[in-house]
Each structure stands twice: as C-alpha cells, then as structure tokens.
Design a protein that fits this description.
- The chain has helices at 2-13, 19-28, 35-45, 50-62, 66-97.
- The chain is an all-alpha fold and 98 residues long.
- The chain folds into 2 domains: 1-63, Arc Repressor Mutant, subunit A; 66-98.
- The termini are far apart.
C-alpha cells in the first residue's frame, strides 16, 4: 500500500513514477522497500494516465447508486417485526409466570 501512496505522491508532485523515485519515497518514509512490488507497480502503471484514473474514480465515488439505499430501508423494516415478536413473547412469558 505504501508503494501506491508513494506513486500518488510522486504524481501529485509532478515527478516521474519510476522505480528509483518510488524506492526513494518509500525509504524516506522509513518503510522497507520490496523490490518486486516496486517493479510490479511501475510495470502496471506504464501507459496509465493517473490523473484521468483519479478523476474517474472520484466521479464514481461521488455518485451513490439508488440501489445502495434500498437495502438500508429494507433492513429497518425488518427490524420492527422482530421487536414486535419479542414483545409478544415477553407478554406470553409474563402470563405463564404471572
């Protein structure tokens, strides 16, 4: 995860996201550098427009879907009948033990 943060920091600073720069940033943070992870990240970011990806990611996060709200209301509706059943069970017990 620290490698991704380092890549984002380099991008924000306008620096080239390459192995040497990533290693420097991660080492400066006091984290042990994993060579294979750094190489893998640099290879996966090759040809990727980071600014465009960040913009599209923030647009997706900013627009909640309508279906995301539907299960929340259903859960609230389910909670009410359970409470009523507990109350009815408590009334039944009180008549038994009086």
């Amino acid at each position: 995860m620290e490698n991704i943060y380092a890549a984002l920091l380099l991008h924000k600073a306008g620096k080239d996201v390459n192995e040497e720069n990533l290693k420097s940033v991660v080492a400066a943070a006091g984290v042990e550098v994993d060579e294979s992870q750094v190489k893998s990240l640099v290879a996966s970011l090759k040809g990727v427009d980071i600014a465009k990806e960040l913009e599209s990611a923030s647009l997706v996060a900013a627009t909640p879907s309508a279906s995301a709200n539907a299960p929340v209301t259903e859960k609230k509706e389910e909670a009410k009948p359970k409470e009523e059943k507990k109350e009815a069970a408590a009334e039944g017990l009180s008549t038994l033990f009086g």
